[in-house]
Amino acid sequence: MGKKDGKRGSSYMELTVLASVGTQIVVSTFIGFGMGYWLDKHLGTRPVLMLVFMLLGVAAGFLNIYRTVARGTRRGN
Fold first, then answer.
1. pTM of structure
2. Cα-atom radius of gyration of the chain, to the nearest Å?
3. CA-to-CA distance for 52 and 67, rounded, in angstroms?
């Protein structure tokens, strides 16, 4: 194991973080959509809560992206 192996491990970690960022926004959006859809279905408020919760999911995804980027910036990556 030389310096190349250490650099390769670092590159894999960066790719993992980038993949998780994309996944975070998609998953949080779908969770918000699903919660809103379910509430609309049971409360009869279609499509108000679906849109509200979907937007909250998007906002939560971007907040997670911001936190991930800020954490990486503090570490110097």
1. 0.79
2. 18
3. 23
